[in-house]
Design a protein that fits this description.
Elements (H helix, E strand, L loop, with lengths): L1 E2 L6 E2 L11 H24 L12 H22 L7 H27 L15 H4 L5 H33 L3 E2 L9 H21 L2 H19 L4 E2 L1 H23 L4 H6 L9 H17 L1
Antiparallel strand pairs: 1-2, 3-4
Helix pairs in contact: 1-2, 1-6, 2-3, 3-5, 5-7, 6-8, 7-8
Protein name: CLN6 protein
Pfam families: CLN6
Keywords: Membrane, Transmembrane, Transmembrane helix
């Protein structure tokens, strides 16, 4: 039986049982991540500028708006399917913070990406950009730095911290005492690649490696802890675990490939060196295309 609570029905007794692989949710989740998150800056670049004037929202902005609605909905549906009762209040606060952070990021990211059409170069800092450093009065430069802070720091933190927290909360309920049920179907195996590639983009472009690796280690520690209780990850838990594992491999290959890039090294100093894909694009790809056009 279920017992009513302030946050909905709560199971009177939690039992660990295997949950079938949520192919529909994971497929929609991966698809909308690729189309609405990774695809939004691409749509902004390839679609004719005449369709979306620089003083109006771009196609990427509309993608971002859709992402801000669909993603929290899918996360809530994912939590609902957990076989274990999860902390509802923490989930609700995380979703609210997620939507607020993603909305802050929408505005900052919209303006920053529109600056590309004016010659803004993502591989340079705000003050080093030619179109910014000559602004008068100089206080305008600080305004652009504030915009960059909202986009890259505050927006990312309020967006990604609750995002990974919700995934971890969901993962904590993905355990079963039946070893034979802890296997991934073929559909899950096929989704691991696209899912991992998206998380690679999310971690590198969002500059959230510490948050990601902390979540990954917490998941691995939880697996070891649950094994002492005779529990193993079910198919959904394995899907998340393998996706995060492959993501770490992709990040390692990405960093190794750009290890000796002096320009990117200058923008990303310090011990943790993980260049952003769009910084790589403006530095090497777009400049190469401009040279060919010239």
């Amino acid at each position: 039986p279920s017992v009513p609570s302030r946050h909905g029905a709560v199971k009177a007794e939690d039992t660990f049982k295997a949950s079938p692989f949520h192919l529909d949710l994971w497929f929609y989740f991966t698809l909308q991540n690729w189309v609405l998150d990774f695809g939004r800056p691409i749509a902004m670049i390839i679609l004719p500028l005449e369709w979306f004037p620089l003083n109006k929202p771009s196609a990427g902005d509309y993608f971002h708006m859709a992402y801000n609605v669909i993603t929290p909905f899918l996360l809530l549906k994912l939590i609902e399917r957990s076989p274990k009762t999860l902390p509802r209040s923490m989930v609700y606060v995380s979703i609210i913070t997620f939507v607020m952070g993603a909305s802050i990021h929408l505005v900052g990211d919209s303006v920053n990406h529109r600056l590309i059409f004016s010659g803004y170069q993502h591989h340079l800092s705000v003050r080093e950009n030619p179109i910014i450093r000559n602004l008068k009065p100089e206080t305008l430069i600080e305004s652009f730095e504030l915009l960059y802070y909202y986009d890259e720091y505050l927006g990312h933190s309020m967006w990604y911290i609750p995002f990974f927290l919700i995934l971890f909360i969901y993962f904590s309920g993905c355990f079963t005492p039946v070893p034979g049920q802890g296997r991934m179907p073929l559909a899950a195996v096929l989704l691991v690649g696209p899912s991992s590639l998206y998380y690679w983009y999310l971690v590198t472009e969002g500059q959230i490696f510490i948050l990601y690796i902390f979540t990954f280690f917490a998941m691995a520690a939880l697996v070891l802890h649950q094994r002492h209780k005779g529990l193993v990850p079910d198919s959904n838990g394995l899907f998340l675990l393998y996706s995060f594992s492959l993501t770490l491999l992709l990040i390692t290959l990405w960093v190794g490939w750009l290890w000796n890039d002096k320009t990117l090294r200058k923008k990303y100093p310090g011990v943790i060196y993980i260049p952003e894909p769009w910084a790589f694009y403006t530095l090497h790809v777009s400049s190469l295309q401009e040279n060919k056009a010239g």
